[in-house]
Amino acid sequence: MTANGFLQIALFVALVLVCVRPLGGYLVRVLEGERTVLHPVLGPLERLIYRASGVDPRTDQHWTTYSVAMLLFNLVSLLLLYVMQRIQHVLPLNPAGQGPVSDHLAFNTAVSFTTNTNWQSYVPEVTMSHLVQMTGLAVHNFTSAATGVAISVAVVRGFARHSAKGLGNFWADLVRTTIYVLLPLCVILTPILVWQGVPQNLSAPVVATTLEGASQNIALGPVASQEVIKHLGTNGGGFFNANAAHPFENPTPLTNLIAMWTIFLIGAALTNVFGRMVQDERQGWALLGAMGVLFAVGLAVVYWTEAGGTPAMRAAGLDLAPSAVQAGGNMEGKEVRFGIANSALFATVTTDASCGAVNGMHDSFTPLGGLVPMVNMMLGEIIIGGVGAGLYGIALFAILAVFIAGLMVGRTPEYLGKKIEAKEVKMTMIAVLALAVSILGFTGVASVHPSGLAGPLNAGPHGFSEMLYAYTSATANNGSAFAGLTANTPFYNTTLGLAMLFGRFLVIVPVLAIAGSLVQKKVLPASAGTFPTHNLLFVGLLVGVILIVGGLTFFPALSLGPIVEHVKMLHGQVL
């Protein structure tokens, strides 16, 4: 751990925090249909989309109508991407001549990009054509992210409105997020990546001759445009198999910083959207504060364990101290151009934010270094979280926190003046338990099924960690992986695809049901017995509830994987 490493981390945190209020204010104006600086340019496009699709953006949808619209849109998107992969060999823009994608892999990939997971059981640069990359995968990067933002703002309206029926209009929220937020940011940032050396073309692979005289195919294509939206929309799926560790995706420290900044950018700003729309910005800062505490603790653990190396390294007499000529610590699976600090930071950020992009191989981290990304996802991706998903995810835990606080003092729990009653608590528990059932259920099946046991490349606790990480990542709609798992099989493609669907929609629907219930309630005036939800006490309670629920649910599974592996490492049994 070095001063330079802490300085780079501090720079990243400062860049995120400085954007929270301005972007939050802009998002509120966009999502509430108010005029912004981009309306003179993009307003005609928005109106054209509404006219062409027959949508009236002023229609206020009941939560059930909002849910059906969201589900149908995602179903059609999934089917179109599936078909496109299956017939890509007869479609244009396929200079490398990629053939049709297998049925189980096409299903997995279509589900993955529709659910904002971007899990990739394939080598992208040799599997997908340029057309599928651009009009299939990249487009879903926009729509899945916009769907998450739409759901989050619908939930916020549930708290902000009172004695109402509707949560807004899904189609309007989807369109406005895409054309006023995601597209402009991509247009600004993509040329910066091109300037830094990220390719953006429609070329076929280039054949190069290596120093040994062998031939090597170097894949090219529309990389820069996909890079920005994969980070900005917390999607994570890369053009190359090595993802953000590939020099064409992430060539410089500047592109690395931009990647991490964009991963947190919208998710952090949405907490300010929450505060502004409920007429108390302190509420948003409290949620961001809870996220910040969990982020800081996780990052500290990863940085400390990776910078310290392992007992076996020290016993071998290796120099683990950082210096001008070496990064020190455990550099296995990490890029030299990023070092320990930026690798630890990227791993923490991408698993906090449900992004899944990686600039190092998590499978090569120390046991505790690999445990933290896993825990980040097991908590429900609520530490900033996926675009939109982080906000409505932490709102569930906020409901649990005020419910527990109400039990402590013997009064009906309230949050933002709305009574939290049986329906809200039941829907909250359905959403929270759905994640646990998917993660632990599918991991349990894989641990005993012959097809599941054939996947891990390692035996013992690390092999179990590879399976546990996979289903955690899929259910949490993250998409990162312990790379030692052979996942492109009918068993894993199917079960991981189902886990992605469960993790996305078995949370979204109960969340919208909660919002639909809350939006009809009156706001009660604060009294002497009202539990404040904007101070440090609430932040501490919220963090405690998150950790207790996560610990009680997942500690036994973690004990069989990274924890026992760490104990073995301390006894010199593993490197």
In N-to-C order, the SSE pattern is: HHHHHHHEEHHHHHHHEEHHHHH
Q: In terms of structural class, how would the helical and strand content be classed? A: mainly alpha
Give start-end ranges of low-pLDDT stretches: none
Q: Strands of the biggest beta sheet: in what spatial order?
A: 1-2
How does the overall form come out from the CA principal axes? globular
Describe this structure in words.
- The chain is mostly helical and 575 residues long.
- It has a domain at 21-204 and 218-279.
- 64% of the residues lie in helices and 2% in strands.
Topology of this structure?
Blueprint lengths: L2 H29 L7 H15 L9 H24 L16 H12 L9 H4 L2 H31 L9 H26 L10 E4 L5 E4 L4 H10 L20 H25 L3 H28 L2 H5 L23 H14 L14 H12 L10 H21 L4 E2 L2 E2 L2 H27 L1 H4 L6 H16 L14 H29 L17 H35 L5
Antiparallel strand pairs: 1-2, 3-4
Helix pairs in contact: 1-9, 1-12, 2-7, 3-4, 3-6, 3-18, 4-18, 6-7, 6-8, 6-9, 6-14, 6-18, 7-8, 8-9, 9-10, 9-12, 10-12, 10-13, 10-19, 12-13, 13-17, 13-19, 14-15, 14-19, 15-17, 15-18, 17-18, 17-19
Task: Write out key terms for the chains shown.
575 residues, mainly alpha, two-stranded antiparallel ribbon, 4 strands, 64% helix, 2% strand
Short précis:
With 575 residues, the protein is mainly α.
